[in-house]
Amino acid sequence: MKLKAIRTTVFSSSDRRLSEIKGHEDILRAMEEGDSEMARDSVETHVAEVIDYLKSNVLNKIY
């Protein structure tokens, strides 16, 4: 139940979806270029953004 609420909320906003796509594209671009440092940085940035979003927009609604 809680996972469904998180997934529904995370992907319900078009701005959020665009942010998710951009994060994934950054990661893939770094991997395609063979730049492991940029890939790691992109993953860390993406995960931090998702966690911040969840903390401020999702978790407070279900806990």
Keywords:
about 60 residues, 4 helices, mainly alpha
Reconstruct the topology from this structure.
Blueprint: H1 2-10, H2 14-32, H3 36-57, H4 59-62
Helix pairs in contact: 2-3
What would your notes on this structure say?
The chain is mainly alpha-helical. The chain has one domain (2-62). Helices cover 86% and strands 0% of the residues. The chain has helices at 2-10, 14-32, 36-57, 59-62. It is elongated, with a radius of gyration of 13 Å. The model has no long low-confidence stretch (mean pLDDT 84).
Following the backbone from N to C, one meets helices and strands in this order, namely HHHH
How much strand content do the residues show?
under 5%
Q: Enumerate how many helices there are, as a single number.
A: 4
Net shape: elongated
Oligomer: single chain
Q: Profile the largest sheet.
A: none
Q: Structural class given helices, strands, pairing?
A: mainly alpha
Count of β-strands: 0
Question: Whole-number average pLDDT?
Answer: 84
- Unreliable spans are none
Alpha-carbon Rg, integer: 13 Å
N/C terminus separation: 12 Å
Share of helix, binned? over 70%
Characterize this entry briefly.
The protein has 63 residues and is mainly alpha-helical.
